[in-house]
Amino acid sequence: MEPKTKDLWVFIETYPDGSAQSVGLELLNPGRELAEKQGGKLVGLVIGHNTDAAVKAVQEHGADQVIVIDGEEYEHFTTDAYVNALYEVITKYAPTAMLIGATNNGRDVGPRLSSRLQTGLTADCTKLGYDDETGNIAWTRPAFGGNLMATILCPNHRPELGTVRPGVFKATEAEEGRTCEVIKEDIHVAPEDIRTRLIKEMKEDASEMVDLVGADVIVSGGRGVGGPEGYEPLQELADVLGGVVGASRAAVDAGWIAHSHQVGQTGKTVGPKLYIACGISGAIQHVAGMSSSDCIVAINKDEEAPIFDIADYGVVGDLFAVVPALTAEVKKIKGIA
Amino acid sequence: MNFLVCVKQVPDTTEIRIDPETNTLIRKGVPSIVNPFDGYALEMAARIKDARDDVKIVVVSMGPDQAKEALKNCLAVGGDEAYLVSGRKFGGSDTLATSYVLACAIKKIEEIEGKFDVIFCGKQAIDGDTAQVGPELAEHLGIPQITYGLTAEMTDDEIQVTRETEDGQEILGASFPCLVTATKPSFDPRLPKIKDKLAARKKEIHVLGEEDFDIDFTKCGLKGSPTNVKKTFVPPVKTGGEMITGETPEEVAANLAAALDKEGLL
């Protein structure tokens, strides 16, 4: 497809209540830089139902324009409704590129869309740049389970598409009351064109829900915590730090903690200010999910554990002695009785 | 019921090490395996086959001749027939080109094996980690898709898949034909029995070469791929980390807390 504009789009995935998922707002940040490089507008594309909150958030996070597709059929994600709507709006405006959050739904709809548009899509990017020489976006992503990074170009097809990992980029501070042009697109998908049906939804237990991606502090436990009760001292530390508890795949697979806590390649990708890895060896699959944390602390008995290679601060020792002592110290510093 | 399972032979990425001298991947001596997610896809199909007596499972792989080994492994754990799609012109394909080749090959295989009711794929291969070929293939074939499937059950007119979502799970139904991609379930796939392994050794692997089915060569291989790799590199190793020590855990904790406090992290 020949692009009609130099605009860069960011797909804003919404929740069923019509608010924006954080990854879309995060992507407006690198999107701004890419749009400027390309000399086009930064456009947020919102799809959902009762999307006023999302539209407001996109304006406050710095978009030049918002395009909204609102309808009942978009309340709960389906591949067919979303890909049909995306295809229609993209062929109408023909932007030069679009960033999509690499959520399960983003990675469901992204490739389907690229196949329909017959264009290139780069999966699960962790770095975005601009190749000045060729005028293409330089999409950088991990492969081989995080052992190798690859920079991908899409030179001859437009729009160029990429899914980008949640938690890698940070959203800019919202500018309250900021507005921009909002265009409503009346695009609807007929029920018979939606070929999957929702039979049942099972949300994770609210008590087990944890906002890993939005957390500033994560205290994470791996095989070294030894069992479900091993998470108690970690939770106490997380509480005094105002953080949440994460886990490695080994601990989740052992059934010690719910999957919603899992950090890593088959869990969430996180980028908190402080990540404290307790009894986690540092398998590349885990590191892939947390290496963009601002500060990494590793506490492990095994001084050879690879987690120390990426840690800013390392402690060789028994987490069951160090973690409660650290909790006590933090309380002292913060003046918590 | 006629099932197709798409599999890829991949290097076991958990065995991959970095050469500290050249900063490149050491692939030598790394075993080739069936992509684990494709193994979950095959297990998903095989469990439905266990529960019914009308299921045939065809397995297809695109790759070099050595990928026959992966197909033989699949024949030992539920696969009934196996096809290898192989040709120099297919080499260097990105995900869109790969899914196009597979779509063309599948149309040919359907002439021989009959129309497929469900196509199963792993959600992603552990070498490329893209998770794109499944949905791209579904689009090429014009059939609905359900991704991130954990388990699946079958009724007479629908497959019902438990799908992993960002905040839990959902059960989706799709009528036939459709495509399902599988993620890691809570159970391990079956291991081959010795007698099935021996039987699989003897089975023929059907090979589909470049000239064996209708395809537009301008849409495959390096030239037919919209994306290309500009460069690859080993992720930079963070250095300069500081080890915190002390005589007692309390002293260690105090030193660590002081360091974090200094950085404004508390």
TrEMBL record, chain A:
Keywords linked to the UniProt accession: Electron transport, FAD, Flavoprotein, Transport
**Stretches of the chain forming a coiled coil according to its record:** none
Highest taxon in the source lineage: Bacteria
The reply to whether Isomerase figures as a keyword in the UniProt entry is: no
Every Electron transfer flavoprotein alpha/beta-subunit N-terminal domain range: 8-198
How many and how are cofactors bound here? Answer: Binds 1 FAD per dimer.
By its UniProt entry, which CDD domains does this protein fall under? ETF_alpha (cd01715)
One Gene Ontology term of the biological-process aspect is: fatty acid beta-oxidation using acyl-CoA dehydrogenase
Q: Indicate yes or no for the key word Electron transport.
A: yes
Spell out the InterPro entries in the cross-references: DHS-like_NAD/FAD-binding_dom, ETF_a/b_N, ETF_a/FixB, ETF_alpha_N, ETF_asu_C, ETF_asu_C_CS, Rossmann-like_a/b/a_fold
Residues engaged in binding FAD:
223, 248-249, 262-266, 279-286, 300
Name the PANTHER family for this protein: ELECTRON TRANSFER FLAVOPROTEIN ALPHA (PTHR43153), ELECTRON TRANSFER FLAVOPROTEIN SUBUNIT ALPHA, MITOCHONDRIAL (PTHR43153:SF1)
Specify the protein name.
Electron transfer flavoprotein subunit alpha/FixB family protein
Give the organism the record lists.
Answer: Candidatus Pseudoramibacter fermentans
From TrEMBL, chain B:
Which PROSITE patterns has this protein been placed in? ETF_BETA
Domain Electron transfer flavoprotein alpha/beta-subunit N-terminal: start-end pairs: 22-217
Listed Pfam families: ETF (PF01012)
User: Which InterPro entries is this protein grouped with?
Assistant: ET-Flavoprotein_bsu_CS (IPR000049), ETF_a/b_N (IPR014730), ETF_b (IPR012255), ETF_beta_N (IPR033948), Rossmann-like_a/b/a_fold (IPR014729)
One GO term in the molecular function aspect is: electron transfer activity
Needed cofactors: AMP
Family under the similarity heading = Belongs to the ETF beta-subunit/FixA family.
Q: PANTHER family, alphabetically?
A: ELECTRON TRANSFER FLAVOPROTEIN BETA-SUBUNIT (PTHR21294), PROTEIN FIXA (PTHR21294:SF17)
The protein in question is named Electron transfer flavoprotein small subunit
Q: Which organism is it from?
A: Candidatus Pseudoramibacter fermentans
The organism's lineage is: Bacteria, Bacillati, Bacillota, Clostridia, Eubacteriales
